[in-house]
Amino acid sequence: MISFFDAKLGERLSKRLAYGKIAAIPFLASQIWLFEKLDRSAFSILFFLAFLSGIASVYFLRKVEDVKSKRISEPSLILPFKHSNFLKWSLLNSGFCFSLSASRTFFAVYVLHVLGYPIWLVLALAFVAHLSSVYSLRFAGAISDRFGNKPLLAISVAFFDLSIILFILSNFNASFGILLFAYILHGFYTYAPNIAFMNAVADMTLRKHSAPFYAIGNWMQDIFSALGSIFGGILLVNLAFLGEKSYIVLFLFSFTTSLLLIPLLRFYDEFGQSTSNALINMPRLFFEDLGKIYRELKHFFVSRIKSKESEL
């Protein structure tokens, strides 16, 4: 059996997450159709379907084989708190989760009530972000393997800040293209940090029990995400007298706090390339990856044609 660490880890992690995103595409498309036809009545149907899906997932989880690991250490929830480099990495990721959630939670509200778009179009934009995330996960895995996890998180922060600028500009410019580009970027910066975090933890815990590190790291990110959403809501309520401009203030807060994380990344110790080098080489990596996709698709279709010809 091939070891998980025999292949490029970022590529393996990104593929696993991307398969889940691809499987969800039909369900997201059905959401848009339901809201276009039933408007608010679609909520009850979707909640019921989500309940059934959750019940069904338990059945499939029971079918997953529990593989015994051969680690040199015993699992302990205290161990991650003794690992200074892990704590630095988790705090940086959690800080980004706070800034991200403070604004992202209210993106849909902003598009609905400030920009005045219908709910089905908001869902369509979310669908675009979902499609973007499928490729973004693949590209994020390539960045992680080629340049490191620190540059990947820095690029995610930069894309988030660019998206914030586009959301702000959409309030002054009615161009739908600006909003569309913001949601395309959304697909990258929302999911790429997951690859960076998982890959970094795997590197730090090689031949050790990684579960406590993932548990503590995910717990910290969830807490900071919740605090970010709560803070964003409180800020909007207290700035209600500003009207639509309250969203701009919130977006600028997220922009500033996330931007401050980039210089703090130097405190995380990782063997990898610099962020500037990653940014310079990103276009080349992108076109290399497109070429790889083309060759994979070409090989797939040629093999399908040959198999059909052999059957005749």
SSE topology sketch:
Blueprint lengths: L8 H30 L3 H21 L21 H21 L2 H8 L4 H29 L1 H24 L3 H14 L2 H13 L6 H28 L6 H15 L1 H4 L10 H37 L1
Helix pairs in contact: 1-5, 1-8, 3-8, 3-9, 3-10, 5-6, 5-7, 5-8, 5-12, 6-7, 6-8, 6-10, 6-12
Protein name: MFS transporter
Keywords: Membrane, Transmembrane, Transmembrane helix
Organism: Archaeoglobus fulgidus
Descriptive overview:
The chain has 312 residues and is mainly alpha-helical. The chain has one domain: MFS general substrate transporter like domains (Growth Hormone, Chain: A). 78% of the residues lie in helices and 0% in strands. The protein contains 12 helices and no strands. The chain has helices spanning 9-38, 42-62, 84-104, 107-114, 119-147, 149-172, 176-189, 192-204, 211-238, 245-259, 261-264, 275-311. Helix 3 (84-104) runs antiparallel to helix 10 (245-259). This is MFS transporter. Keywords: Membrane, Transmembrane, Transmembrane helix. The chain crosses the membrane at residues 41-61, 152-172, 178-202, 223-241, 247-268.
